[in-house]
């Protein structure tokens, strides 16, 4: 069995301690408060501080993960001989997933003996987090990455959540 690395992005709103315990790597989306030019990674600000800023009337704007950021995250895993599986933020809400597809295509050409599989969660926030957890459990059953991607496609229509 090939080794693999499972990635998600920070829009899954799952605490880092859980993701680490599950062996899942997280790629941060960025944001800025509209009254500032300072840009932050999601992991750089405490959740309570972030929401206090919103309560104080500061609006926040997010930025999608771009192709280069995905390549920087995925390539070391591929170079080390591990396959990559990325479960992404809903393509209906962000261009993040499309960026992951473009990065996967480029890296698959560069590493033809490795697998780079990306799956659209069609979810956000805790719905995405729940699908991440369920996919971790599926992968623990020694599912192949292709089986995990198929599982995501079959399961995502049944994840009911509000965002």
Structural features, described:
- With 163 residues, the protein is an alpha/beta fold.
- Helices cover 44% and strands 19% of the residues.
- The chain contains six helices and seven strands; from the N terminus they run βαβββαβαβαβαα.
- The strands form two sheets. A four-stranded parallel sheet has the order 2-1-6-7, with helices on both faces. A three-stranded antiparallel sheet has the order 4-3-5, with no helix packed on it.
- β1, α1 and β2 form a beta-alpha-beta unit.
- α3 packs parallel to α4 and α5 packs across α6.
- The termini are far apart.
- 31% of the residues are buried.
- The model has no long low-confidence stretch (mean pLDDT 92).
Q: Which residues sit in consecutive blocks of at least 5 with pLDDT less than 50?
A: none
- Give the fraction of residues assigned to helices: 40-55%
- Rounded mean pLDDT is 92
Count of DSSP strands? 7
Strand order of the largest sheet: 2-1-6-7
Q: Taking Cα atoms only, what radius of gyration do you get, to the nearest Å?
A: 16 Å
- The helix/strand class is alpha/beta
- Straight-line distance between termini: 37 Å
What percent strand? 15-25%
Count up the helices: 6
Give the CA-based shape: globular
The description of the largest β-sheet is:
4 strands, parallel
Order of helices and strands: EHEEEHEHEHEHH
What's this, in brief?
Helices cover 44% and strands 19% of the residues. With 163 residues, the protein is an alpha/beta fold.
């Amino acid at each position: 069995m090939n080794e693999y690395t499972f990635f998600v992005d920070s829009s899954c709103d799952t605490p880092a301690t859980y993701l680490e315990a599950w062996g899942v790597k997280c790629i941060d989306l960025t944001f800025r408060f509209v009254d500032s030019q300072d840009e932050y990674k999601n992991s750089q600000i405490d959740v309570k501080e972030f929401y206090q800023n919103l309560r104080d009337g500061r609006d926040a704007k997010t930025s999608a993960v771009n192709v280069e950021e995905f390549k920087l995250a995925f390539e070391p895993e591929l170079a080390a001989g591990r396959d990559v599986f990325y479960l992404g933020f809903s393509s209906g809400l962000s261009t993040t997933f499309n960026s992951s597809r473009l990065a996967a295509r480029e890296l698959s050409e560069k590493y033809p003996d490795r697998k780079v599989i990306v799956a659209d969660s069609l979810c956000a926030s805790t719905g995405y987090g729940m699908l991440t957890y369920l996919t971790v459990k599926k992968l623990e059953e020694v599912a192949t990455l292709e089986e995990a991607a198929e599982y995501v496609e079959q399961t995502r229509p049944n994840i009911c959540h509000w965002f």
